Amino acid sequence: MPDPRADAGPAEAGPGQILEAAQRLAQGRLVAFPTETVYGLGADAENPEAVARIYAAKRRPADHPVIVHLSPDTDPGYWAASIPSQARLLMAAFWPGPLTLILPRAARIPDAVSGGQDSIGLRCPSHPVAQRLLHVFAALKPHGRGGVAAPSANQFGQVSPTRADHVRGEFPHLDGQALMILEGGASEVGIESTILDLSRLDRGVGPVLLRPGHVTAAQIAEVLGEAPALPDAAAPRVSGSLKAHYAPRTPVSLVTAEALAGWVRGAGAPAAGRRMAAVVLEAAPGEAPAGVDWVILPADPAAYARRLYALLRELDEAGYDRILLQRPPAGPAWQGVNDRISRAAAAFG
Predict the structure, then answer these.
(1) Which of the residues 27, 210, 233, 312 could staple to 248 if both were Cys, CB 3.0 to 4.6 A apart?
(2) In whole angstroms, how far apart are CA 332 and each of 6, 217, 336, 337?
(3) Helical (H) or strand (E) element with 52
(4) Taking Cα atoms as reference points, which of 22, 76, 81, 32 lies closest to residue 54?
(5) 0.85 exceeded by the pTM?
(6) Backbone phi, then psi, for 69, in 5-degree steps?
(7) Residue-wise pLDDT tens digits, 131-156
(8) CA-CA distance, 91 to 334, in Å (whole number)?
């Protein structure tokens, strides 16, 4: 199977760049780096001042937690007050990979990474550049257990970046001294990690799926022997949980396949001089009317997710007045994609 990063432009960051990036992190500076999900904006997770630079750069609310990224050879027990057996099973099954676990935060870890909560989100990414960066950074720490706090490397609420050039476009006000960006090609997964809450097991609250993603609820249930519950009112705040999120600049509307053809040909058709992009699955539903361009995405959830964010950015740059997204199927495999596009559309009412 071809590597989806292979045709993505510049080569991956080399050892010298990774060492420089790790040294910058140790100095409290910002580094953007690739993961298999999206690019992250990273800082030393144990340095509250460095973490504050993430929030300032993204214009992110201070009570919105970030995820701590760990090398495969780093002990998660340093970061969490306890590692329940369920967490160990999921780490063995899905780490390195696109699964974030919410666990009780160890007292030694500043609450800057958790928005003031007593929990912490931990993830071990599988991208080779991320793994090398995290390994080298941890080796620079006196205790050898460094972790990097890293939300997506974009302005808060906007479309997450899946290539290094996306990151550059998000932070034109930060020069090379303020932000180093590591190349790693296009992100393979394309949407943010699944987030599972295990922080309340000692209070009788079982696993709770706080954000769907590439690792599905069914896969989690297969490992744990129980299906994760839906979010409840007392669940921890986590990244990407706001109603409106992941939004491009261009207004987005979700429509059914049946409504799409009628909408673009009837009252919803663009006025003279205006342009609309209609993103459909597998095939265009006939000839596009004036002012409408069909954009075809594969009817496969993994392939769709891999392409989604880059496509939204391309449509923004193309100057369309509106983006219509055909609703994908409602099955479990599409849950992560449907979550992201529903939040994107919610930004426009």
Answers:
(1) 312
(2) 29, 8, 8, 10
(3) helix 48-58
(4) 32
(5) yes
(6) -100, 135
(7) 999 999 999 998 989 999 999 999 99
(8) 23
